[in-house]
Amino acid sequence: MKKILIFGITILATSAISIVLFSYLTGNPTYPESVVQTTINSKILNEEREVIIHLPINYDKKKKYPVMYVLDGSSQDKHLANKFDILSTAGYVPETIVVGIPNTSGKGRQRDYTPPYMKMDIDEKDSPLGGGDQFLSFMEKELFPYVEQNYSVSKNRSLAGNSRGGLLVMYSLLYKPDLFKGRFCFSPAFWRDDNLIVNKVSDFLAKNESLSSFLYLSMGEDENEKMKKGFKEMTKTLSKKENDQLIWYSDFTKNADHQNNAEISASVGIRKWTDYLNTGE
Fold this sequence. Notes:
Strand content: 15-25%
Structural class: alpha/beta
Helix content: 40-55%
Largest sheet: 8 strands, mixed
Oligomer: single chain
Number of strands: 8
Order of helices and strands: HHEEEHEHHEHEHEHEH
Shape: globular
């Protein structure tokens, strides 16, 4: 926190930066004109889906912006949008449009974020399988076109997810590698179904040696052993790959648990993502 405050003091020279810093520290956006809330009627999911679009504070229709799609919208998108505004204003990362996708009520989150070969609820004997493939199809065929038609965006797309959302992010790499150029898995639930996703990744990498993408993984040091064990197994699997075009990073975040790991580690992941983009990969 001390580092954040010191950084804030150095950039308070303009009122715009003061507003962004206040938003970051409080977690509440104070420039509503740059946040657009709307809904999309999804024929694929057969439901209305809310979307929260965070535009850069200096949004210019003449520019093309990368887009980060964020799962668990209304909770995870705010801090990521604030970080992009602060870091981009300081010149460390590119200005980016952040699109938050809120969850539906009931078991909608379990359905959307669980791969189709995993049970939505491991505690239910007859639990249905996940619908992660359908949710990603909704993003590709309905959400992406909407964003691209209404905002000035580039084809540089990334996806960020926390906990079970991180599981879906990893599944998206196996389902459609080219759907996103970058992926961020915060506190991912890789342990589910006896580390099944870890085995799927191992098989996938063996068959896709020329895969080119960026992947950032983080886990809080204070998270439970089940979470950390699955995370370590995934790191081992990625370490065995022979593909130098898949750029990935795996971090254990000090003084972080399941509740705050994403907020603490996101700035690190964003900066590494920017370094990757600057290399021209």
